[in-house]
Write a structure and sequence with these properties.
mainly alpha, 65% helix, de novo design (two linked rop proteins)
Length: 150
């Protein structure tokens, strides 16, 4: 799997471009006091989106790929939450917020479309081990509601 291979995947390109936007457009507006807080969280969430799409793409089996797309979508939502906080704290302008949020919405639509395609195509369904199910028998979850009194 090469980056050139990923470049053919539109959903990954959009996610990568979103991460670049966060790094180049949003992060420079955050104050130095947020370097290890909001900025760090925002960078990690944004970078996680294309990384998870790439990891899923490398798995070949559609259910693994879909699972990593769900994780990517969650990271995208996390990044949007951090963006909203940055706007509310006055670190970024409404214009930047609107532009970056619009870009994030394009990415989530692309991820949702990719997930739908993967589920329909079922690529890798006949891979060795794809039809094996791991099943664990869970112990009952008990809660002790008694209160100890002296």
């Amino acid at each position: 799997m090469t980056v050139m291979n990923l470049d053919q995947l539109e959903v990954w390109r959009l996610a990568r471009d979103f991460a670049v936007t966060i790094y180049k457009i949003v992060i420079p507006h955050l104050p130095a006091s947020e370097k290890y807080n909001l900025a760090d969280q925002l960078k990690r969430a944004a970078a996680s989106v294309p990384a998870n799409i790439a990891e899923g793409h490398g798995r070949f089996y559609f259910q693994d790929n879909v699972r990593f797309c769900y994780i990517a979508r969650g990271s995208l939502t996390e990044a949007q939450s951090h963006l909203a906080l940055a706007k509310e704290l006055g670190f970024i302008t409404q214009e930047i917020f609107t532009s970056v949020t619009s870009e994030a919405e394009k990415v989530v639509r692309s991820i949702n479309g990719w997930i739908a395609y993967l589920k329909k195509a079922k690529t890798g369904i006949n891979e060795p081990g794809a039809n094996h199910v791991v099943h664990e028998i869970l112990a009952p979850y008990l809660v002790d509601n008694s209160i100890e009194q002296d």
